[in-house]
Specification:
This protein is of the alpha/beta class and 480 residues long. It has helices spanning 10-17, 25-41, 54-61, 65-77, 95-99, 120-128, 130-136, 148-160, 176-187, 202-210, 227-237, 258-271, 328-338, 347-356, 361-385, 409-416, 447-465, and strands at residues 81-84, 88-91, 109-110, 170-173, 193-198, 214-219, 241-244, 275-278, 305-310, 322-325, 399-403, 421-422, 438-442. The strands form four sheets. The protein has a seven-stranded mixed beta sheet with strand order 4-10-9-8-7-5-6, with helices on both faces. Strands 1-2 form a two-stranded antiparallel ribbon. A two-stranded parallel sheet has the order 3-12.
Length: 480
């Protein structure tokens, strides 16, 4: 994400916009304006960002300067950019967008963040760990590898899932995102390549680009994984690292079976390519028990697989705790590299999570039951209000990967802002943008909010496609 008051180059803005095609001066300029509008409202182009010159952006997009100028005119009319002779154009936000609240019936609903609120037991655990925390106060509090009791309990969880693990194979981090950044820093250099699935987790792509390495995508087919494609890319592109999500892949929700994991491990072994396997969603098997699921990837390849996980989706994102499971040698390298980032994770939160992992199953079952119920609500609502959207109901995870009847995903994401729904366009989950026939819809909001969010999305989709009768004369959705 750009810092406030920064400057965005034409090349970077093209990447942020994703796949964008000239559809004639009028449609093309409207599409470009919509893309810039979405980036601004979503915080990717903070107010005060200096935009590239019209001629420079036109060249980068391969369109006429007139088209770009027309898009800039539209954005100026909406008070979304301001231009001054000699200093270019900058993004801004009109006062109405900043201060005017939505009407009560249109309170904002966030479908862009696929993360649930905290489980009730998280708050109760605060009192339970006060004594253990008091004992730590006489120490300096810097624990580069993590608090020992938490490392022990995370190791026990891996062992219970079939991957024998010792505390020395665990490094506690500030979330799975931080874990990936540590691995990238320690194991790649600027200009290296990293193999990724396409689509994949959008924040992982940001971490990869921030490390100045190049994501190399392997498109996922309609079903499963393209393991032959993985092998071809490993052989031809020679990436330094792979980043994979084999448990309820984000955003598709798919899970690689044991046979596929064994084949994938053999491919990595032949290519001698380390792989970061993201298990952030592994505990969210909504139709079964994670302890009965496919063995962790580390069971099939002990030396090359680096597993990262997090408490963010299973317990609460506000804990900001994750972990890395790898060989002792790799953990040592990562701990040494970490000193350039920070000197350890917060002690109190680690003690709290250790308490929750003393007997993890009751709370995890509660989370699974909650998300399974939400999944059913979302599935039913989409089938009722968006019958021309198609999707597979995933066994686990936190979202549906919807296929739309036309390439209108970005337009829906932009228009949804006007009715108080925030949803991430599918281009965010792609290395080179595109995927405009897709939309990720999480089921992490409360059930009543999910129903309302789908109702609004259906109205927006109807407006985008030109279907009549779904919006009121004021542009809002009629409330029964």
């Amino acid at each position: 994400m750009l810092p406030p008051g920064g400057r965005v180059s034409a090349a970077r803005l093209v990447r942020m916009l994703g796949e964008w095609r000239d559809q004639g001066n009028r449609a093309g300029s409207a599409g470009l304006a919509a893309g810039i509008r979405l980036l601004l409202f979503d915080g990717q182009l903070p107010p005060g960002t200096t935009l590239p010159a019209e001629r420079e952006l036109a060249t980068a997009l391969g369109v006429s300067r007139t088209l770009v100028a027309s898009a800039w005119d539209q954005l100026r009319e909406e008070d979304l950019i301001v231009s001054r002779r000699g200093s270019g154009s900058r993004t801004t936000l009109p006062a109405a967008h900043v201060s005017a609240p939505f009407p009560e019936r249109l309170q904002p609903l966030d479908l862009a963040t696929a993360a649930p609120g905290a489980l009730p037991g998280v708050g109760l655990a605060v009192d339970a760990v006060r004594g253990a925390f008091a004992l730590e106060l006489s120490c300096h509090g810097y624990m580069g590898y993590g608090v020992e009791i938490l490392r022990e309990r995370l190791a026990q969880r891996f062992t219970a899932r079939g991957l024998p693990t010792t505390p020395d194979q665990i490094l506690v981090t500030n979330g799975a995102h931080h874990a990936l950044a540590l691995v990238l820093r320690a194991m790649t250099a600027p200009g290296d390549r990293v193999l990724v699935e396409q689509p994949t987790y959008n924040n992982a792509l940001e971490a990869i680009r921030s490390a100045h390495v190049m994501p190399v995508p392997v498109p996922m087919p309609e079903q499963g994984w393209d393991l032959e494609g993985v092998e071809v890319v490993l052989r031809q592109a020679a990436p330094r690292l792979a980043y994979l999500i084999v448990d309820f892949q984000n955003p598709t929700g798919r899970r690689l079976d044991a046979a596929g994991r064994e084949q994938l491990a053999a491919i990595l072994r032949r290519a001698r390519t380390p792989a970061v396997v993201d298990e952030t969603l592994v505990e969210l098997d909504l139709d079964g028990d994670p302890l009965d699921g496919p063995p962790p990837m580390g069971c099939f390849e002990a030396d090359l697989v680096i597993t990262v996980g997090s408490a963010s989706k299973s317990h609460w994102g506000g804990l900001r705790l994750g972990w890395i499971r790898a060989s002792e040698e790799v953990i040592g390298r990562l701990a040494a590299s970490r000193r350039a980032f920070d000197l350890g994770s917060p002690v109190f939160e680690q003690l709290l999570l250790a308490h929750l992992y003393a007997d993890p199953e009751p709370m995890l079952r509660e989370r699974r039951a909650e998300m399974a119920a939400n999944r059913s609500v979302l599935v039913d609502s989409l089938r009722e209000h968006c019958p021309d959207w198609s999707f597979e109901v995933p066994r686990g995870g936190l979202s549906l990967w919807c296929e739309l009847p036309a390439p209108i995903g970005t337009r829906i994401a932009v228009a949804a802002q006007t009715v108080g729904v925030r949803v991430a366009p599918a281009s965010r989950f792609s290395v080179h943008g595109g995927l405009d026939r897709r939309l990720r819809v999480p089921y992490t909001l409360p059930a009543s909010d999910l129903v309302e969010a789908v109702r609004r999305l259906a109205a927006v989709a109807a407006r985008v496609t030109g279907s009549p009768g779904t919006l009121g004369s004021d542009g809002l959705i009629p409330v029964a």
